[in-house]
Amino acid sequence: MKNDASRKTIRRVLRYIRKYRIYVILSLVLALVTVATTLYAPILVGYAIDEIVSKGEVHFDALLAILKKIAIVIGITGVSQWLMNLCNNRITFRVVKDVRTRAFFHLENLPLRYVDSHQYGDVVSRVIADVDQFSDGLLMGFTQFFTGILTIFGTLGFMIWLDIRIALVVVLVTPLSLFVAAFIAKKTYSMFQLQSGTRGKLTGLINEMVENQTVVQAFHYEDEAIGRFSVINEELRQHSLRATFFSSITNPSTRFVNSLVYAGVCICGAVVAMNGGISVGILSSFLSYANQYTKPFNEISGVVTELQNALACAARVFELMDEEPLTPEPADAVRLESPEGSVQIEDVDFSYDPEKPLIQDLNLSVRPGQRIAIVGPTGCGKTTVINLLMRFYDVNEGRVCVDGTDIRDMTRASLRAGYGMVLQETWLKAGTIRENIAYGCPDATEEEIVAAAKAAHAHSFIQRMSDGYDTVITEDGGNLSQGQKQLLCIARVMLKLPPMLILDEATSSIDTRTEIKIQKAFAQMMKGRTSFIVAHRLSTIKEADRILVMNAGNIIEQGTHEELLAQNGFYANLYRSQYIHTGRAQA
Q1: Are strands 52-54 and 530-534 parallel, antiparallel or unpaired?
Q2: Which residues contact 432 (CB under 8 A, 6 or more apart)?
Q3: Could you say which of 3.30.565.10, 3.10.20.310, 3.40.50.300, 3.40.50.11030 is the CATH number of the domain covering 333-418+532-587?
Q4: What is the CATH code for 2-190+242-321?
Q5: pLDDT of 585
Q6: What pTM was estimated for this model as a whole?
């Protein structure tokens, strides 16, 4: 199975390389030139030695001519090797760019289900660290593998041409070196796979701890975090040690076999030379070839180890790329243009886990411009309804329609463009405040951005910042308070003003005075717009046209605030439980 997986990964890598086959062919030609000139040099050196007959008997004219040839050969070798490296670099880094681009593009097209169920750090590790490891192995493979193979066959050919008897010694010992390299290669692949997987787990843990350092320190979780880190780090140490051990014995093992080859050539060559079979110069050429013949085995064994690591990393990247993408949009998918805002949820069943039913037989009809509030205990399905409306998840049964059209029959981009969302969990990108407000409307004018900030009551705190709207904030707004981040997210929606709104605990991090102002701004903004408001503080949804009370994935009550209080049911009890201590339970 492991061999099949490795072969499958190699075939996929070759498909990416095929695009740059011109550079591959050029690299092979240059490798051939490099090897040919490298192997021609020892023969010239042997000829030069033979021109030194004895003391006082040196053929300087012939020696000088040979030395000129050697200089030209060395020059050609250097230039061809430099050009070959340029080709190899271009192949490697373009392939890596293609793989990383494809992986990121696929990641952007994965369903939210995948993102929610996988550790962020491991995903990041696949796209960044694993692709880098793949790059290193691929570059080494191109740089040393081609020339190594050609050198082995080239030197063997030259040795057979010079003297087949001595060459037979090399041929007989070679299989032992190949057996050692193959045995170690099989062992290292699975170990590098474990190393890459554990490195991804460690990256995920570090990412989790860094992003949530405030919570970690607030709950004195440092010791537990260090403990978890130590366990995974120890696993990584063990896997890395085993992988490195097996990869590190490759070179000494092949060197031992290669030393046997060199010793055999020395002994046999000396015997043949003493019997007058070859000259001293040819013997020196043979010894040079024996050394050059064995050297690629050391390099190739190291390359094989790196390639095993690269293939293990590539397999993890391809595993990400093989994840089922978003359900493709139909070829005739319609664009939601200028939606009126009518929404129908018909006989919808949905669950994140097939074993745990959540929403069952949900029905809802919303007229254009209605304000629908959704309340209920934690885990009752409020946010799930929002996920279904935005088509972050597809329903298992039933359908969700906007303006009478099933949202699965329309483009996701046009559907989501029809909604404006403000969530309890804020998100801001690294960049200026202006860029964050204009995130959904990059072409917005300065006046429109400022007007949106004023409507969201964010203008005053933005002006107090060092560079106003040009103030650069860190990733996820790390240098802002939670309330300020939420105001910027509200301003982002105020700027876009889509026909439909989703407010999921949109004012949960804002002080009471600002919340009253924001609620007034929301009331103005919601006029004529279909709005879905998820709230825990029931005082914020009294003016809703209809309040849906959810429990265990079902709508158990619905009506206006007054109607629900009059029913004296679940909503009334929920409302009283929030305000009984204030004496305003019947407000």
Answers
A1: unpaired
A2: 467, 469, 470, 471, 472, 473
A3: 3.40.50.300
A4: 1.20.1560.10
A5: 44
A6: 0.66
